[in-house]
Amino acid sequence: MYFTRTALSVGFAAVLPFVVMAHTHEGKVVVESTQVTENIYMITGQGGNIGLAVDEKYTLMIDDQFATLSDQIKSVIQEISDKQIAYLLNTHYHFDHTDGNANFSDHVGVIVAHDNVRQILKSGTTIEPFGREIGPYADAALPALTFNDKLTIHQAGEEVKLVHFASAHTGGDTVVFFEDSNVIHAGDLHFSGFYPFIDTGGGGSVEGYIAAQEAILAMIDEETKIIPGHGPLSTKADMARDLAMLRNVVALVETALAKGEGLEQLLQNKVIQAYDASHGDGFLNTETFLTILLNALK
């Protein structure tokens, strides 16, 4: 088994494509689970990591990846629990986290998301840098329960707190805090060990992304287990590492813009080249990441 990067489309001329990480074996996506605590699991396959919390009566699910993987995902969930999925939470609107909504709609009690997620999925949109169209979703695949700021669900033996962070990765990001288990599902507010995608066309912002990670780090401790949107099960130290990278690269981009420099000069920067080795083999390659920052900060 190994990771592969699947190209979806090219948005910026002369910039390598947007990719979605996948676990594959002999060319087939492999869906598998990792136990995080006694009652919480992380499911990986292709696209955003799925969270699962189970108790003696119900299951709570976070995100659902691609529709083509729904049957595999359902099989893995059945291996963990045969209880009804009471809630399916969408951390944001991107297709690699919500494409399976329609396939799970008959198997869950209610789909939950931030107000903006329902609005975008209902009307449809395009992820601008990559020309990727999303929706409009059928009514059954839309979140039926939405919230504006915070929402608490009492399930899996604890308080599950949904907290919205504004203008960060998108305009509708939710982080899920399992208070008693000291576990969070960060959605795409954490790309662990990868460059983050900041969807400015979808309501995100560089400043908001940094502010959100700062706020999350202030809310957790060294023992917190983080299910990232992409990447392996992580810790506070992992998120702090990636935030430091983002701050440093943003500062370099701002300096380059002030000097009238651009992508070519940034790619020659030794600090950028070091980050290319540590973070550039993931969701975004270095050129795409820098191009997004250049467009966002100019």
Please tell me about this protein's structure.
- This protein has 298 residues and is α+β, with helices and mostly antiparallel strands.
- 31% of the residues lie in helices and 32% in strands.
- It has helices spanning 70-80, 95-98, 101-104, 115-123, 206-219, 236-258, 263-267, 270-279, 286-297; strands spanning 2-9, 18-25, 28-29, 32-35, 40-44, 50-54, 58-62, 84-89, 108-114, 125-127, 132-134, 145-147, 150-155, 158-165, 173-178, 183-191, 225-230.
- The strands form 4 sheets. It has a 7-stranded mixed beta sheet. Strands 13-14-15-16-17 form a 5-stranded mixed beta sheet, covered by helices on one side. Strands 1-2-3 form a 3-stranded antiparallel beta sheet, with no helix packed on it.
- The protein is globular.
Strand order of the largest sheet: 4-5-6-7-8-9-12
**Molecular shape:** globular
- Number of DSSP E strands: 17
**Unreliable sequence segments:** 1-19
Order of helices and strands: EEEEEEEHEHHEHEEEEEEEHEHHHH
What is the chains' assembly state?
single chain
The major beta sheet can be summarized as: 7 strands, mixed
Percent of residues in helical segments?
A: 25-40%
- What value does the average pLDDT take? 91
| Count of DSSP-assigned helices | 9
CA-atom Rg in angstroms: 18 Å
Which structural class should the secondary elements be placed in? alpha+beta
What is the strand content? 25-35%
Distance between the termini: 41 Å
